[in-house]
Amino acid sequence: MSGPPSSTAGTEDDAQIVAQSLDQPELFARLYDRYAPDIHRYATRRLGDTSADDITADTFLIAFRIRSRYDVTRSNARPWLYGIAGNLIGKQRRAEVRALRALARTGHDPVAASWVEDTDSRIAAQGPLAGALAALSAGDRHVLLLVAWAELTYQEVAEALGIPVGTVRSRLNRARRKVRTALGADPAFVNDAAEVA
């Protein structure tokens, strides 16, 4: 469902960068370089190319403005950034649902098509999936897509959304069950994929 993440943690942890950027603001650009491609790809899949640039820019602008409140006990800023992006995407929920419905009609996902070799067979399957995603509640869809498209762990999703891990698990379970049912699978006979650690 997703391509390989474009960033790695590097040698300096994110908390150090955020803390140092309070005195040296230009250092915050390291977080942008590290995570902007991932945030942009995720926003593009959720809202389309037109909105992705704005979501990505606004995510890092907000993160920069509130960096003094960052919990430096968390060495990875990825969930924090996805949480900010998710809040911005949530404000554009109607556009996301419209994009998913268009994908359901056409079966064409330009983001996935750019890094999938055998797009013809994948395109045929994307229409029904997009329709199923559009039918999910915003909270369930957000959890499912953070796991599936952003490749966050359950703990990272919980941090990103400010909810307990148990809520992540229940939303993800409900979303998977609804998607399976919408795609014609019997949810009683399909096991969930193992949690990403």
Task: Give a verbal description of the structure.
- The chain is mainly α and 197 residues long.
- It has a domain at 12-91: Rna Polymerase Sigma Factor, Chain: A.
- It has helices spanning 14-21, 29-47, 49-65, 78-90, 93-106, 110-115, 119-135, 138-148, 154-161, 165-182.
- Helix 2 (29-47) runs antiparallel to helix 3 and helix 8 crosses helix 10.
- The radius of gyration is 17 Å and the shape is globular.
What is the top-level CATH class of the domain at 12-91? Mainly Alpha
Taken from the alpha-carbon principal axes, the silhouette is: globular
The radius of gyration computed from the alpha-carbon positions, rounded to a whole number of angstroms, is 17 Å
CATH-wise, what's the superfamily of the domain at 12-91?
A: RNA polymerase sigma factor, region 2, helix turn helix motif
Structure class: mainly alpha
Number of helical elements: 10
Strand content: under 5%
Uncertain ranges: 1-10, 115-124, 193-197
What is the residue-averaged pLDDT? 81
Query: H/E element string?
Result: HHHHHHHHHH
- Based on DSSP secondary structure assignment, what is the total number of beta strands? 0
